[in-house]
């Protein structure tokens, strides 16, 4: 019996040691996984060099990594004079909107993806592979969408009815959990683009082929604030709405909210071309044009550097 007892104790001790070892190995593996994920983010390993054609672009914004273009073959980023692409986001994003915690988008996944087509409304980060499905997955592709940078308001023009929404203008104040129809009275022309104020979700602008329209009551009513022309390039700062207009020549305007005063923003030479998308930081501006060119400026538009020409990146 003594021998059996000793043997049992030895086995118990061995199993305890093995258990502790396996737990240690597991903890080390988890630590390695965590550190590799941290290292991936710290070293921006989720980005890789890119050159070539952006194809169609359906959105432009600025995020921590740089100026982000939602291109036909995924998110391309212009960072400190170099082109990168987001390894985990090769999808054809539409209605692309940069937020303080990542981006919102609609569009279509690449054919090899397990994601449903169309994407509906998705939330993501360029540093993470996964997307968070917010609404209408497999049902809708929102080409015209606006979202607040630091609020939960999302506005869409729904082109095709889905399980919840008819055709028309809608807004959500909780990132797509619930939706309400908005009258959008005063809008003229074919709807092309939307933008939402970064902090005040009641303030939204719409660009059409007849001009720029501004609402300060959550999209119930809009007022025309520009000349008649093809509008685009909508971008809100806290105090201004920037917009582009084509009336035979291209212009860019800063409209002071609450005052209705305007000032011109200098543009590069755009012959038979105009601003489609515009975004800015405190010291830089970027535009993407209808003919597939992109420029950046670090002096308020006095000088522009071309970084894309007819869809092709310029190094």
Automatic annotation (TrEMBL):
Instruction: Provide an example Pfam family for this protein.
Output: BNR
The stretch of residues making up the signal peptide is 1-22
InterPro entries, alphabetically? Answer: BNR_rpt (IPR002860), Glycosyl_F510_1955-like (IPR054817), WD40/YVTN_repeat-like_dom_sf (IPR015943)
- UniProt keyword list: Signal
Q: Which domain of life is it from?
A: Bacteria
Instruction: List the protein's name.
Output: Sortilin N-terminal domain-containing protein
């Amino acid at each position: 019996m003594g021998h059996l007892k000793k043997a049992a104790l030895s086995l118990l001790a061995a199993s305890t040691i093995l258990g502790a070892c396996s737990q240690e190995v597991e903890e080390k593996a988890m630590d390695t996984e965590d550190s590799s994920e941290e290292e991936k983010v710290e070293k921006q390993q989720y980005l890789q060099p890119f050159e070539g054609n952006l194809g169609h672009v359906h959105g432009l914004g600025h995020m921590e990594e740089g100026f982000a273009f939602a291109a036909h073959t995924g998110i391309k980023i212009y960072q400190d004079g170099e082109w990168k692409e987001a390894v985990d986001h090769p999808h054809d994003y539409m209605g692309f909107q940069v937020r303080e915690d990542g981006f919102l988008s609609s569009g279509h996944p690449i054919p090899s993806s397990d994601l449903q087509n169309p994407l509906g409304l998705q939330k993501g980060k360029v540093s993470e592979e996964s997307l968070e499905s917010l609404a209408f997955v497999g049902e809708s592709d929102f080409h015209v969408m606006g979202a607040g940078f630091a609020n939960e308001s999302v506005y869409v023009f729904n082109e095709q009815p889905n399980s919840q929404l008819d055709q028309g203008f809608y807004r959500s104040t909780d990132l797509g959990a619930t939706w309400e129809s908005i009258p959008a009275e005063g809008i003229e022309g074919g709807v092309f683009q939307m933008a939402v104020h970064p902090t005040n979700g009641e303030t939204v602008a719409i660009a059409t082929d007849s001009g720029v329209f501004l609402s300060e009551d959550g999209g119930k009513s809009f007022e025309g604030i520009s000349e008649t022309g093809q509008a685009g390039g909508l971008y809100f700062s806290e105090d201004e709405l920037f917009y582009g207009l084509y009336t035979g020549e291209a212009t860019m305007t800063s409209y002071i909210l609450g005052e209705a005063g305007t000032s011109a923003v200098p543009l590069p030479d755009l012959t038979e071309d105009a601003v489609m998308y515009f975004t800015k930081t405190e010291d830089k501006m970027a535009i993407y044009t209808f003919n597939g060119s992109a420029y950046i400026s670090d002096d308020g538009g006095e000088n522009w550097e071309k970084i894309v020409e007819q869809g092709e990146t310029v190094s």
